[in-house]
Amino acid sequence: MDKETTLAGSVDSQLVNDVLAAFFDRAKNRAEGMHPDYRTMWEHLEAGTTGGKRFRPRLVLAVYSLLGGTDLTTAATVAASFELLHTALIVHDDVVDRDFARRGVPNVSGAYRNRAAAQGNPPARAEHAGLSVGVIAGDLALCNAYRLLGEVDTDPVTRRKLGDLLDEAIFASAAGELLDVLAPLDPTPQPVDEVLDMARLKTAVYSFEAPLQAGAVLAGAEDRLVNTLGEFGRCLGTAYQVADDLIGVFGDETRTGKVGWGDLREGKRTALTSYAAEQPQWPRIAVLLSTPDLSAAGAAEARELLIESGARDRSMQLAADLTDRALQALLDPSVPEGLRNGLAPLSDVVIDRVRV
Amino acid sequence: MDKETTLAGSVDSQLVNDVLAAFFDRAKNRAEGMHPDYRTMWEHLEAGTTGGKRFRPRLVLAVYSLLGGTDLTTAATVAASFELLHTALIVHDDVVDRDFARRGVPNVSGAYRNRAAAQGNPPARAEHAGLSVGVIAGDLALCNAYRLLGEVDTDPVTRRKLGDLLDEAIFASAAGELLDVLAPLDPTPQPVDEVLDMARLKTAVYSFEAPLQAGAVLAGAEDRLVNTLGEFGRCLGTAYQVADDLIGVFGDETRTGKVGWGDLREGKRTALTSYAAEQPQWPRIAVLLSTPDLSAAGAAEARELLIESGARDRSMQLAADLTDRALQALLDPSVPEGLRNGLAPLSDVVIDRVRV
Questions:
Q1: Is the CATH code 1.10.3210.10 the one for domain B1-153?
Q2: DSSP string, B183-226
Q3: Is B156-356 the same fold as B1-153?
Q4: How high is the ipTM of this complex?
Q5: 23-82 of A, contacting B, C-beta below 8 A
Q6: Global pTM?
Q7: Which of A136, A329, B73, B211 is the most buried (most CB within 10 A)?
């Protein structure tokens, strides 16, 4: 979700950055009172939140503004809470994936792995120390998503609804992460419906559905509109994940900044592999996927087989269909025209990605 | 903190168990709606919370009752929130320590490591899967500590104070856990003051100080009493940790259920090693501590050297002094006599442990 996106009204994320900067300043000062090393950890955590595109906060602010909300300071606090949730989830996701860098620079775990290695510790010990600090740092980001939301100055009913949305986002993304961990352990291919369920739980709820709904709740929207935005976010977020998986395999590495093929090699389940598993090319693809250190030639062969099996085209069509369903949801009469026009360009996030 | 303790009024933790059982029932049903595997994970998380002594909840309830509080249902919800925090911290602590069992049965990580191994995955992969599920399960326990506290039916000021206590507990224990991860990576021995700071941050705040204070806040106590209880809990909790480290090295394994020597072999910093590091026996002790798979004879030699260096006696004295300071704090005039008499037996928790 690090890609630049077009959102109506070109919502400024400076307010959110201000809330986050003030939050991290408080945390760093408080941490320093306990131990200098603790402050340093907070600095690494803060560094991990900068440079992102503030996608979720911008969804909160966009919906809130498009529905006529004017208290942007309060909205920015809600938005910042979703950004901290995102930080927590990527820090812990990196622990689960044993990733030590993000956007080419060491993440929290990477920074502490490097530090431990520089102190003369053997690689395995340094790695585990790095991952351990990642667990701790992610915990703090997660707790403070709740704390920030608790600071929002609003009436009890709105506060409860916002709390429920954050809770649902966390409950669902944990389910998605769990299924993501468990799926590759069982060699049976999964039907595409299960893969989509996992994508929805892991990404769509917290990255699309909940932030869109939070903006609406804060603007005082009726339940029907909130539900409609949920449906829009769910479909669009799932489409995004299907597109993202396509990019991971067929995308241009220099453009996406991702190492192509990486996810599939790790046994991740995607719509692509589910479709391929139904076709005669699958046994050969499965052999390639389970090859450690797959060569460039092997990866190229697997890509060809995924195209030949029709899996790529079916995945692209799936992403397009889900995007259409998202746009259909916006036609519900509960959606004011300004909001509809403002959110529709979000589908470009997906459409652009599928043009691989 | 799994040891049975005497608390005045023999507070019944059944109410807390009821709150937790209702919470887990809701979570399991909700999880089942997402995926059967998700429900299973919640069952493992719940199993990890049963069998404990509910030490922190009992502190909350004891202080609340001793100060005349009568709404035990509300107090039990606050108490349950601290139990979920404890669950989160031990689940994540086990991830950091790569422990796959607790009290002799597989913990969440152990259950999923075993499951992955049974599915035919190699040991390293199965272990990492287990630890990954531990990260996720701990996250959920942590978030729901906030959620449970949010359900407490009280006035806004009390609610804010309780939120601040939970926040301080998490902020401090994360600092302690961080220092605990970082310390063994640097071979320089630490002064005893730093070791005590770490123990206070990692254990005393969330296990003693915050639950005691939460019970008082909920009972409407004045600030001075809340601060006094903080001092009492800080000293007693730190004493507890010093005693616990002594038990870990000198205790009877069959009685404590712990593998003696385990913590020191992993390079953990304790008052014991800090004191020993000042003495001529240290170079030999340091060699023994850094020996992988230290033999029983090697462990016995190290124990003898720790006694000979005076480190054991000094640690025992330290635990006794800290316990005295805790009891001194209770003499503050802000502490009603009933509360003082009710809490004083808590010092037995420490005194009993030091009788090794």
A1: no
A2: GGGS-SPPPHHHHHHHHIIIIIIIIIIHHHHHHHHHTT--HHHH
A3: yes
A4: 0.91
A5: 30-31, 34-35, 37-38, 41
A6: 0.92
A7: B211
